[in-house]
TrEMBL record:
<dbReference type="GO" id="GO:0005524">
    <property type="term" value="F:ATP binding"/>
</dbReference>
<dbReference type="GO" id="GO:0008652">
    <property type="term" value="P:amino acid biosynthetic process"/>
</dbReference>
<feature type="binding site">
    <location>
        <begin position="14"/>
        <end position="19"/>
    </location>
    <ligand>
        <name>ATP</name>
    </ligand>
</feature>
<keyword id="KW-0418">Kinase</keyword>
<keyword id="KW-0547">Nucleotide-binding</keyword>
<keyword id="KW-0028">Amino-acid biosynthesis</keyword>
<comment type="similarity">
    <text>Belongs to the shikimate kinase family.</text>
</comment>
<comment type="subunit">
    <text>Monomer.</text>
</comment>
<feature type="binding site">
    <location>
        <position position="60"/>
    </location>
    <ligand>
        <name>substrate</name>
    </ligand>
</feature>
<dbReference type="InterPro" id="IPR000623">
    <property type="entry name" value="Shikimate_kinase/TSH1"/>
</dbReference>
<feature type="binding site">
    <location>
        <position position="156"/>
    </location>
    <ligand>
        <name>ATP</name>
    </ligand>
</feature>
<dbReference type="Pfam" id="PF01202">
    <property type="entry name" value="SKI"/>
</dbReference>
<dbReference type="GO" id="GO:0005829">
    <property type="term" value="C:cytosol"/>
</dbReference>
<dbReference type="GO" id="GO:0009073">
    <property type="term" value="P:aromatic amino acid family biosynthetic process"/>
</dbReference>
<feature type="binding site">
    <location>
        <position position="18"/>
    </location>
    <ligand>
        <name>Mg(2+)</name>
    </ligand>
</feature>
<dbReference type="GO" id="GO:0009423">
    <property type="term" value="P:chorismate biosynthetic process"/>
</dbReference>
<dbReference type="GO" id="GO:0004765">
    <property type="term" value="F:shikimate kinase activity"/>
</dbReference>
Amino acid sequence: MIRAQNIFIVGPMGAGKSTVGRQLAEALSYTFKDSDQEIQRRTGVDIPTIFEFEGEAGFRARERQVIIDLIAGERMVLATGGGVIIDPENRQDLAARGVVIYLHCSAEQQHARTARDRNRPLLDTEEPLQRLRELMEEREPLYRQVADMVVTTEKRGTGSVVKEIVRRLEEGATGVL
Ligand SMILES: Nc1ncnc2c1ncn2[C@@H]1O[C@H](COP(=O)(O)OP(=O)(O)O)[C@@H](O)[C@H]1O
Ligand SMILES: O=C(O)C1=C[C@@H](OP(=O)(O)O)[C@@H](O)[C@H](O)C1
Ligand SMILES: [Mg+2]
């Protein structure tokens, strides 16, 4: 049984990457990392503050560096931010260094799960649902391009999502367990 590889979770805001990633790491006894949390730890400020002072470009540069530093690990579940796949080098690195799981759900579901918190500057607009739809249109092909496994989180609890991922990893489709 090979248990050395990393698992990278990608997908849009509100798909449940951070929540499912943490629970999956626990289920597998892997280390858990979250690229947004790592950026916040390194800078000492929250994500909206980084966007405010450095713009999205500054945030992407920090995100890129975190990916470079973290992918060297092993037995790690890494929850990425929804825009990580915009950078072709991130896509290449994630695909090369672990199993990539794309957590998928509708824009309506993303909206329902993100409406209450103000921690996502890209959704700080009059029409967050419309913004989520536009982002999905741009990014969906990129999520699919890097994904080894696509799992829906639409209208289901995180426990069920984690169980499905573990089962599919064990079935050997990806060679990680
Ligand atoms: N399957 C799910 N069912 C219900 N709520 C969920 C589910 N997955 C995540 N959530 C909730 O939605 C919000 C966003 O989840 P999060 O893990 O931060 O998503 P992401 O990291 O993909 O943006 C959190 O409040 C979380 O508790
Ligand atoms: O989709 C995006 O571009 C972003 C998603 C966020 O992470 P989550 O997907 O965990 O919400 C965070 O990285 C930042 O606000 C930008
Ligand atoms: Mg997250």
